[in-house]
Write a structure and sequence with these properties.
This protein is an alpha+beta fold. It contains 14 helices and twelve strands. One of its GO terms (biological process) is protein catabolic process.
Amino acid sequence: MGSSKGDDWTYTRKRTEETKYKWTIKDFSTIPQKCGDKIQSPSFFTEDGEREWKLAFYPSGCNLLHPDSVGLFVTPLMPEDVKFKIELTLAIFTPEEMIRSRNCFIQWKKDMPDWGYQCFIKRSELLSLKKSNDSIIIHCDMRIYDTAVVSAFDNISSDLSKSLKSQKRSLINDFRSLFTDPQFSDFRIIVGNEIFHVHKNILAARSSTFAVMFKHEEMEENRKNEVKIENMDSELVKGMLEYIYTSEVQDLERLACGLLGAAEQYDLGGLKNMCMDTMYNLLTAENAADILVHADLYRISRLKEDTINFIKEHLTEVQSTESFRKISNAGLLMELLLAIGKQDGKTNKTDEKNT
């Protein structure tokens, strides 16, 4: 009897989830030209908020086998415990017309890091097109099918998790709308010719720097209800404010180095950690010297140590870069040379033992 009752609480559930996402890439002809360089889209989600994805776009090919092609991939950001099937359509548009569309049906397995096309379209074909504002628009349509055996408790837990994720996403979207709509703002941030309409209580709650500014009524910024920021460009300020309102930055990979200074100045510890993790994940021979300079400037010891280790392993390539030759901090250069010297010393001692 007990076994029969238990069976009644277990069942097989089939689900279908859909998502449609558009990603606009501006200034296509000027984005990184090096083979293997990629740009990633902001995160997007299935309708229930349960699965998170990103698109990876390789404007000059994803590897040396396809240097003249544009690569396009879709990547899940959350690990999957179950297999699922996905009907995927990827397309590239200009503002005027569709250029290329591809459709496939995939049996996705949990050990698949991404899926896509190494040769989605020839780069020369995209460059030859007349595009408004030099922009392309990538469309990603997905329909996901999966089957899971669940118990009543699992179902309740899953529904609760979905609900919480959906509520979190809804809250982020509401605060993003608050940032972009000036209607109820009470403070202005002026950067050059651009004005950001913001809310004192949100800025004060997220940044101790802003909180101190607003507590002192005699400060000019508080009396005028505006502040001028002159040591950052408008793109960085927009990224900082986007983080303050949503805890996200849609173009973080490109802005991480600059936002590190903003995070330090306005006491945004979460943004600082996001920038640090992003910079480490993007570490290459080409940008290692720049990242080292920023890590030293803002006293991020772990990133600095990791970058020094990376430079030691790729010394020849790093030394040939323009950013390495521009390092002007004598103390930092000495620290790097000493670290390289220690490695060479260990290597020489090992060689002596082996001879």
